[in-house]
Amino acid sequence: MSFFGSSNTSSFSFGGGTAATTTNHNPMKDIEVTSPPDDSISCLAFSPPTLPGNFLLAGSWANDIRCWQIEDNGQTVPKAQQMHQGPVLDVAWNDDGKKVFTASADKTAKMWDLESNQSVQIAQHDAPVKTCHWIKGSNYSCLMTGSWDKTVKFWDTRSPTPLKVMNMTERVYCADVKYPMAMVSCADKKLVCLKLESEPQEYQKFESPLKYQHRCISIFKDKSNTNPVGFALGSIEGRVAIHYIQPSTPRDNFTFKCHRSTTTSNQPQDIYAVNAISFHPAYGTLSTVGSDGRWSFWDKDARTKLKGSEQLDQSISACAISHNGNIFAYASSYDWSKGHEHYKAQQKNYIFLRSCAEEMKPRNKK
Questions:
Q1: What is the pTM of this model?
Q2: Distance of CA 186 to the CA centre of its chain
Q3: For 18-43, how does the pLDDT look when each residue is reduced to its tens digit (9 = 90+)?
Q4: Number of other residues whose CB lies within 10 A of the CB of residue 53
Q5: First vs last C-alpha separation in the chain
Q6: Distance, CA of 301 to CA of 313 (rounded, Å)
Q7: What CA–CA distance (Å, rounded) separates 231 from 208?
């Protein structure tokens, strides 16, 4: 029997009545994903539009990758699971949705064939692999991996040796790919923009617009939603930078504060890490999630906040938006921002699904 079964799900609604009623761990009363990982959730990724229906991946510190099918009524069906020898730090789909790539602290990346449910190692680094992204070019396809060994490598999945190795100035902390552009962010706050057309090559290097350690990066497209033109960068200091590679005016590039406590003038402000950023595939608006246990939706062009969540009882460690822009997924689990001593093994991890098409729509200008 095929991994995918026969169900063809293409829309999403709250018909199933599966939302939890407790307000502490789920204050927004969103739908809970069945059988979430047993340890901190590091990454989420929705299936590409080439695959009928919606499937969701999650990688975790329990060394596993899980996949669910999301039905029309919001019910989530666990489909399969694979393991690494160390925490899974990133996941990515290939373009046809039949294979999944996983990056791990065990210094490898694997390819998981969903139809046969077999997983094979296809990449190796000298330190944990922090990022993995599938590149589907006009004349080549490959997997891009970024590691704490200070390299970015490009892999033909049929060969044990990389097609290309790029040396970075420091450990790779986060990366993103929207063909024909890739962004890599390093531990020394240096950023590298890559052009991917005929082969991966360095296009531009620049200093971070943010003062503190980077946590996440996400590429955005132009207003016609065709070409990648810039990126949003999140840091541990509760701040996001919106940065165009070729800004039309200096004013195009700006930073904004988020994931901070509201405070009065004589009270210090609590500042939290921005753990993940996702752009809406149709509107170009974005979501941010943070160590404060909140998510927010933003319109970068209008420079306004569209919606914010109530506070969850633990950090939101990852988020993703479905290819049709209807579902916002976010993970409630410890993000290690306060160190190992604050980790509570008994605290359950959750993944929530929220209908976001209306809430992420830009508001009409008056």
A1: 0.91
A2: 17
A3: 444 444 799 999 999 999 999 999 99
A4: 18
A5: 54
A6: 31
A7: 12
